[in-house]
Amino acid sequence: MPAAAQPRRTRRNRLARTLTVAATGAAVLALPLLGATGASAATPTVVTATSLGYANNLDGWIRASLQVMAQHGIPGTYNGIYRNVIRESSGNPYAINLWDSNAAAGIPSKGLLQVIDPTFNAYHVAGTSWDSYDPVANITAACNYAAARYGSIDNVFGAY
């Protein structure tokens, strides 16, 4: 558009535009500060055996998992979990299977109940850690999977 055909901009319009840009810039700069406060307050706490008042050992991990499972309607008993943990990992939360078909495919079974990462991710239970070696997260995800596939971890008597 030629200069003569352009509408004349007044000083007031320029001032309003400048103030709007400045206010928007200030708001954008303030967002990380405001967001940091809100984000830390909204960060969920990850359930652990100790955070639920249980010992940080196999007994505590199972009891904490049963509490989380009850909150999410996942069936299972202490004895069913214990039996499978002992068979799968002998109670070692850092157990890893590096020799079976899953390992050969690049996705080894891990943790107390020897869960592969895709299964752990698919059956992860909200509120637990996303670390498949975390005892409570591993047990609850495995029990969630067993419930979907077999009705309950109590119905599992071999490799699953």
Q: How would you explain this protein's 3D organization?
A:
The longest helix has 32 residues. Helix content is 54%, strand content 2%. With 160 residues, it is mostly helical. The radius of gyration is 27 Å and the shape is globular. The protein has a two-stranded antiparallel ribbon. Helix 2 crosses helix 6. The chain has 6 helices and 2 strands, in the order H-H-H-E-H-E-H-H.
Annotation keywords:
160 residues; mainly alpha; two-stranded antiparallel ribbon; 6 helices; 54% helix; 2% strand
Strand order of the largest sheet: 1-2
Q: Would you tell me the overall average pLDDT?
A: 84
Q: Let me know the largest β-sheet.
A: 2 strands, antiparallel
Would you report the number of β strands?
2
Number of helices: 6
Radius of gyration: 27 Å
Structural class: mainly alpha
Low-confidence stretches: 19-40
Helix fraction, binned, reads: 40-55%
Q: What general outline do the C-alpha atoms trace?
A: globular
Succession of helices and strands: HHHEHEHH
Residue fraction in strands: under 5%
Q: Whole-Å distance between the termini?
A: 74 Å
